[in-house]
C-alpha cells in the first residue's frame, strides 16, 4: 500500500514538472487604459499598430508589430481598457492577400 502511494506521488510530481516549463512569457494578462497601452507599445517597444479587426460591438483586436519581428496582440474594449492577450516573434505580413475580399 505504501509502495503504491509512493509511486502515485512520483507520477504526480513528474506530471507537474512540464507545466512549470510551459509557462507563458506573460504570466498574467496585462491591462492598461488604452491611451497608456498605446503609448507603451509605441515608445517602449517601438511597435506600430499594423492590423485591427472588430470582434464584437464592444471589442477590437489589434496587432502591433516592430521592425525586429516582435508582435503583440491587444484586445481593446469600449470601456477604454486594452489588454495584451498574446505576444511573439518572427511576425511576417502577407500583404498580397486581401482577406476582406476573399
* Overall radius of gyration: 20 Å
Biggest sheet layout: 5 strands, antiparallel
- The coarse silhouette is globular
Give start-end ranges of low-pLDDT stretches.
3-22
**Structure classification:** alpha+beta
Overall pLDDT, averaged? 77
Termini gap: 63 Å
Summed up, the helix count is: 2
Helix content: 25-40%
Strand content: 25-35%
**Strand order across the biggest sheet?**
1-5-4-3-2
SSE pattern: HEHEEEE
Q: Got a strand count?
A: 5
Please explain how this structure is put together.
By secondary structure, this protein is an alpha+beta fold. The protein has helices at residues 2-21, 34-43, and strands spanning 30-33, 48-56, 59-65, 71-77, 81-88. 11% of the residues are buried. The N and C termini lie far apart (63 Å). The model is unreliable at 3-22 (pLDDT under 50). The protein is globular, with a radius of gyration of 20 Å. The protein is built from two helices and five strands; from the N terminus they run αβαββββ. The longest helix has 20 residues, at 2-21. The protein has a five-stranded antiparallel beta sheet, with helices on one face.
